[in-house]
Structures are given as C-alpha cells and as structure tokens.
Design the sequence.
C-alpha cells in the first residue's frame, strides 16, 4: 500500500500559516537585532504584556497579508516537486525555495522594474539585495517551519 502525497494539506497549511509564521520571525528579528540601541534598551524593557501580545497579533496579521502570495507559490512548488523530508538536504531545499520565491515576489511587488532594468548603479542593486534579502531569509525559515509540520517524513 503506497501512501499518497498530502497535496491539499500542504497547500492549506502553507496558505494559512506560512505568512503568519514569517511575521512572527520578523517580529523576533526586529526585537533582537534592533538597529538603534536606544530604542531596544528603553522601549522594549517597558512594554507591557498586553502590548507584547498586540505586537504579536499585528505581526501575524501583517505577515499573513504580505506573505500569503509567496507562501502559496512556495507550497505549489513543493507540491509539484513532491518534497519529502528524508534528509537534511530536503530542509535546505525548502529553505532555498522559500528564499527565492519570497525574494522575487517582493522585488516584483515593491520595486520599479523599469528602473531596475535601466539602472546600472551598484547602490541600487545592493539596496534591493539587502532589503529583500532579509525578507527572503524570513520566507525561507517560514517555509522550513511549516514544512516540518506538514510534509511527510519519508
């Protein structure tokens, strides 16, 4: 008896949880690696528990809003390739798929493509790489976490 691949389950879980988990990862990274030390030293120490939960809910909501399309496309690629978590390399594949899909979706969504094609300055390309690189890493981590929860193990 051969088990069928859980296509519907993979698509549903990635659609429901992919963006929200990405939003939580982004919130944690903002809290831990704040660019301005005075903000992290003073503001986050005096935040109440209610405000912390509100920040978590807002991060989940914004992550779901902005991460819905990348997580759907990631799940479609995973289902088409029928990825099964049989080795560490499969986790790496999930991370790379999530990174690339998130990177290209956010480049298309938030940047002027005509300016990107005609621009030959290094500053423009580095800015895009840094801004979207952070989001791509969040998308890759979210892809691995949801994949760990939903994909078949062997």
Sequence:
């Amino acid at each position: 008896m051969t088990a069928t691949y859980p296509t519907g389950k993979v698509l549903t879980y990635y659609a429901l949880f992919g963006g929200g988990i990405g939003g939580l990862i982004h919130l944690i990274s903002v809290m831990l690696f704040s660019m301005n030390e005075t903000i992290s030293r003073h503001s986050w120490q005096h935040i109440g528990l209610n405000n912390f939960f509100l920040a978590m809910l807002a991060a989940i909501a914004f992550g779901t809003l902005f991460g819905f399309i990348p997580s759907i496309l990631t799940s479609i690629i995973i289902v088409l390739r029928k990825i099964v978590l049989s080795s560490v390399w499969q986790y790496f594949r999930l991370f790379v798929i999530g990174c690339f899909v998130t990177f290209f979706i956010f480049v298309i969504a938030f940047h002027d493509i005509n300016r990107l094609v005609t621009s030959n300055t290094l500053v423009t390309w580095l800015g895009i790489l840094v801004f979207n690189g952070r989001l791509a890493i969040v998308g890759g981590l979210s892809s691995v976490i949801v994949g760990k929860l939903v994909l078949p193990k062997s």
The chain has a mean pLDDT of 85. The chain has one domain: 7-150. Residues 7-150 form one domain. Residues 58 and 70 are 19 Å apart (CA to CA).
